[in-house]
Amino acid sequence: MTTPKRRSAFTRLLPWLVVFVLGGAAGYYVRDRQAHDRMQETVEQTRRQMERAALEAIGRAQRAGSDFGAGAEAAAESTKAAFRELTGR
């Protein structure tokens, strides 16, 4: 007589156990998915910041190069003028 009661209790608890396990699995999946999405967002934001910084550095280098070129031309002209003045050519 006790066997049917045990089986009855087991069959009543089994659906709740299944729901509990599936709920836990779904909860972990959602948590991991949200963490993954946050990580992807952080990676994308960092990539954009690095790209912006690289473009700024390239711009600064180009401006410095053009400034250096202008300075080098002025120095060359000054040297030529000084050479002409000293040599009389």
List keywords for this structure.
single chain; 89 residues; mainly alpha; 1 helix; rod-shaped
Question: How would you describe the overall organization of this protein?
Answer:
The protein is an all-alpha fold and 89 residues long. Helix content is 97%, strand content 0%. The model has no long low-confidence stretch (mean pLDDT 85).
Provide the β-strand percentage band: under 5%
What's the β-strand tally?
Answer: 0
Low-confidence stretches: none
Note the total helix count: 1
- Oligomeric description of these chains: single chain
The helix/strand order is: H
Measured on Cα atoms, how large is the radius of gyration?
A: 38 Å
How many strands, what sense, and barrel or not for the largest sheet? none
